Every structure is written in structure tokens, then in C-alpha cells.
């Protein structure tokens, strides 16, 4: 009887381990939005996401005057990656695209995002180009009635080395999702589903 009880306990433990292991897998698929951009920023410099050497790009839309979501999301990315080794840090870059081209310059956007994450680039484009990129990524951006702030989507768009969008990370996802996604895509072992 004791042996049978031990067997059932063992089976139960294996079930729990497999349940938690399967639940922690990061699902990556090729999404029909986002992807590479190849446009000039407000300074006239050509921005081509394929020119970055990092295999993983985390694209995020926001603005430097954002009171809550932008700082919180950037702080979460920082927390998710602060224990990365030097090699792991070279495998990803944050691309911050300003949705407030009237107030944000490329220099301001870069300083803002690099305050949180050193391996990051910030960009500001003219309003027409900004709208084009927002549509390409199917992001939501709307100026508030007071004209001082924006309601905007807070997804992190995860691009692979071919600059295909492979995952949308929600603002409610934990930092472990960011951590695991970067590691999975930078290992070159993930295949499209």
C-alpha cells in the first residue's frame, strides 16, 4: 500500500511539473503587423530596423511627457533585462518611437529611453511618417481633448532578426515574459508556427 501511495504521489508531482513547465513556454508566431521600417527621422537620418545588429528588437510607441504607461513599461523592460550577461544584452535593442512629434525630437526620445535602458534608440518622425508607422503596427494613438497628452496602446512589439513581428507583449504581462521572449528569439532556435 505504501508503494502504491508513493507511485501516485510521484505521478502527481510529475503532473504538476509538466503543467507548470508547459504554462511557462513562450509562444512565438509571425504576426501580419509591424515589421521593418525604412524612413527618415526628423533630422533627415535614414532609420532602417534591419541595420541594427541585435537579433531582437523591442518596438514601443510612446512619448516623453507620458505620465504613467511609458515609464512603467520601460522600467519593466529594464527590470526584465538587468540580470542579463553582457552577451545577452547585445542580443536585443529597444526602439522607442515617439507619438508626439511636435514636442519630442529624436535626441530627446533617445535620452528618454536610454535613461531606462542603455541599449535603446529613440526616434521622432514628422507627423505624416509617424501616422504611417502607427498604421503599419496597428497601434492605437489619439490625442486627448486637452491636447497635452495621448491615449495610446502600450504593446511591446517583438521583432526577430528578419524584422518580422513575432510577439505582442501586453502592459499587463510580467517581466518574465519579456525576459523569456528575448532569450527565446535570440537563441535562433525558435521556428515560425
Please give the oligomerization state of what you see: single chain
Task: Please state the average pLDDT score.
Answer: 86
Order of helices and strands: HEEEHHEHEHEEEEH
Provide the spatial order of strands within the biggest beta sheet. 5-4-3-8-9
The CATH topology annotation reads as: Glutaredoxin
State which percent range the strand residues make up: 15-25%
How many domains would you count in the coordinates?
A: 1
Cα-based radius of gyration, to the nearest Å: 20 Å
Q: What global shape is seen?
A: globular
CATH architecture grouping: 3-Layer(aba) Sandwich
Count the beta strands: 9
User: CATH class, anyone?
Assistant: Alpha Beta
Structural class: alpha/beta
Q: Can you summarize the main beta sheet?
A: 5 strands, mixed
Give the helix proportion (percent range): 25-40%
- Give the distance, in angstroms, between the N- and C-terminal Cα atoms: 46 Å
Number of helices: 6
The CATH superfamily is identified as Glutaredoxin
Provide the low-confidence segments as ranges: 5-23, 188-193
Amino acid at each position: 500500500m505504501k508503494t502504491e501511495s508513493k507511485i501516485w504521489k510521484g505521478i502527481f508531482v510529475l503532473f504538476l511539473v509538466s503543467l507548470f513547465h508547459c504554462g511557462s513556454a513562450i509562444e512565438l508566431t509571425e504576426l501580419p503587423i509591424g515589421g521593418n521600417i525604412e524612413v527618415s527621422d526628423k533630422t533627415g537620418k535614414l532609420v532602417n530596423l534591419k541595420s541594427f545588429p541585435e537579433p531582437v528588437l523591442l518596438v514601443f510607441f510612446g512619448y516623453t511627457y507620458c505620465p504613467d504607461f511609458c515609464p512603467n513599461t520601460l522600467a519593466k523592460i529594464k527590470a526584465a533585462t538587468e540580470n542579463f550577461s553582457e552577451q545577452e544584452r547585445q542580443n536585443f535593442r529597444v526602439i522607442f518611437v515617439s507619438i508626439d512629434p511636435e514636442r519630442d525630437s529624436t535626441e530627446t526620445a533617445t535620452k528618454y529611453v536610454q535613461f531606462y535602458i542603455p541599449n535603446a534608440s529613440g526616434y521622432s518622425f514628422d507627423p505624416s511618417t509617424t501616422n504611417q508607422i502607427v498604421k503599419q503596427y496597428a497601434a492605437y494613438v489619439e490625442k486627448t481633448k486637452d491636447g497635452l497628452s495621448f491615449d495610446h496602446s502600450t504593446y511591446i512589439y517583438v521583432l526577430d532578426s528578419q524584422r518580422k513581428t513575432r510577439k505582442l507583449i501586453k502592459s499587463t504581462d510580467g517581466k518574465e515574459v519579456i525576459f523569456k521572449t528575448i532569450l527565446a528569439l535570440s537563441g535562433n532556435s525558435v521556428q515560425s508556427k
